[in-house]
Amino acid sequence: MEKFEIKNRKGLKIVGELYRPENPIGLVFVQHGLGSYKEQVAIVATVDIFLKNNYIVINFDSTNSVGESEGKFEDATMQLHYEDLVDVIEWSKSQSWYKEPFVLTGSSLGGYSVVQYAEEYSSLVKAIVAKAPVISGELSFKTYEKFNPEVLKNWKETGWDERKSVSKPGLIKRLPWSHMEERLNHDLRPNALKLTMPILIVVGENDTSCPLDVQETLFNLLPKNIKNELYVIKGAPHTFREKDHIDEFKNKLDNWLKKLK
Fold first, then answer.
1. What pLDDT, on the 0 to 100 scale, is given for residue 261?
2. Which CATH number fits domain 2-135+187-259: 3.40.50.1820, 3.40.1010.10, 3.30.470.30, 3.40.30.10?
3. Residue 167 pLDDT greater than 80, yes or no
4. Which pLDDT belongs to residue 192?
5. If you average pLDDT over residues 95-101, what whole number do you get?
6. Can you give the residue ranges of every domain in the chain?
7. What is the pTM of this model?
8. What is the DSSP string of the chain?
């Protein structure tokens, strides 16, 4: 593994990791979700499976999160998360190991980013693995109304959503209401027909952040002549942490990659 540091378009440092197998067959970019980081257990599992299948892997900490990259969590937006992915890919194009078309994989907000990139630059993307991606701000809002109405109400009234980090005990993550307002500007559905590459969407059965019915709204809009798949992990929440859920995810991803041409 090689560590790298670059500056994004805002001048903030992005820290990432480059993995290069001996005989690579392709390249993949991995992006975590909101308030996550590159060492999160499901992200590491993703990296492991792509390496096992001989992909060069770029795994990086987005800015305005809780990893090594710069920025403040309260400044995080969907657009900035997406721009970090674009900036990492642009930097990669100048490197000797760069290959295209490449694979994109992301979780939650990172899932939104990789699908958005594929809609804009479909010729560069070989395939997508999206783990419970955010589909649109509108659907995010409706999901809060369904599963966490009191949280949504308090967030709007106080101007802040505060919660304890599960992966980093002691850390309090705070998001302003403007984060939700910015989300409402984003929607993957109108350009879904541009997604002409194979897509694997994985979601936990008990996901209450980006649930199955929300994933189906995008999946049902994808081109019908492509071998896409929507896979549900029984009993799993939004973020995979339990060994059984991680193992099932790894097995599914490994089998799917082996069938990818």
1. 72
2. 3.40.50.1820
3. no
4. 98
5. 97
6. 2-135+187-259
7. 0.96
8. -EEEEEE-TTS-EEEEEEE--SS--EEEEEE--TT--TTSHHHHHHHHHHHHTTEEEEEEPPSSSSSSS-S-GGG--HHHHHHHHHHHHHHHTTSTT--SSEEEEEETHHHHHHHHHHHH-GGGEEEEEEES---BHHHHHHHHHHH-HHHHHHHHHHSEEEEE-SSSTT-EEEEEHHHHHHHTT-BSGGGGGG--S-EEEEEETT-SSS-HHHHHHHHTTS-TTS--EEEEETT--SS--SHHHHHHHHHHHHHHHHH--
